Amino acid sequence: MSQSTANRFHPGQWTPLTWFAVLLWTWKPIVLNYPPAVSYSEDPVTGQFSVPTHYKNLSEIPFPVGWPLYYVKPSYLTAPSVAPMMPVGAPLPPPAPSSIHPFALVANVLLVGIAIAALVYFLQKTTYRFALLFLLGVVVAVPLGIGLGRFVAMFGGYSAAHWVVHWYWIAVYFSPVPAALAVRYSIFQRMEWSRFRSMWNRGRRSCGEYENAEDAISVASKLEMLGDWTASIDLYRYAAERWPEHTRYVQNCIDRVTEKQSLAQG
pLDDT tens-digit profile of 133-175? Predict the structure, then answer.
């Protein structure tokens, strides 16, 4: 890997779009993995909030905490679902303390780090247009997830909707991983383009052998699609010099190829 390619992934070389995406991808796991120190319950009749409940340690938290894996699991997620028989009128026993899973928290840090690294690789490796389209796709996925949750809740209940939406957001969040792998191991990078270009060059005519402008411009367009932009520009210029009536169209083609060269080098 060249020095310029290696520097592309240094934070100092990140584009504003990459910085925005990294901040966005970092915000969600921080919020969902930060354990709350206090909680409030709302009275269903009056709508007022109760006295805040303070938690001294993680085992006192009565709800799951962690993303994408729960590292705090309340008793109803780990204990049997069958409740013990209680005498009529007897007070309910206090809930069992929540279980703590530190390895799940470590796994969350590793998984989030992999997702952000893949995000940076994809955004810095591809052109600005593809990077922007990818982020727009993620934005479109947000309302789709909300609609999916409501649809599943209509037929399977809120419990099923909760798990479907949970895994849906995990798939959206970690979508940069397959995207980065597709760019890294792309079939276009493995193909031997030099072999195809040499075969094309052996059968290509010289500039003086073209009898009309349409034929020359058509071949120049094919060279442009094959990525042989230098030969394409040379043939476009030859067509403009020999057939001046096509100068304006040919100049537009040259400007288009030059723009592609600039984007590829940037």
Answer: 888 998 899 889 889 888 988 888 888 888 899 899 999 999 9
Give residue for tokens 């982020």.
Answer: 135
Cα–Cα dist 2/260, whole Å: 21
| 157 φ/ψ sector (left φ>0, alpha ψ -120 to 50, else beta) | left
Could you read off the pLDDT of 16-59 as tens digits, one per residue?
A: 899 999 999 999 899 999 998 888 776 666 667 667 788 888 88
Q: What are phi and psi of 110, to 5 degrees?
A: -65, -45
Q: Exposed, middle or buried by CB within 10 Å (0-12, 13-18, 19+), for 9? A: middle
Return the closest-CA partner of residue 29 out of 76, 67, 72. Answer: 67
Assess contact for 61 and 74: CB atoms under 8 A. yes
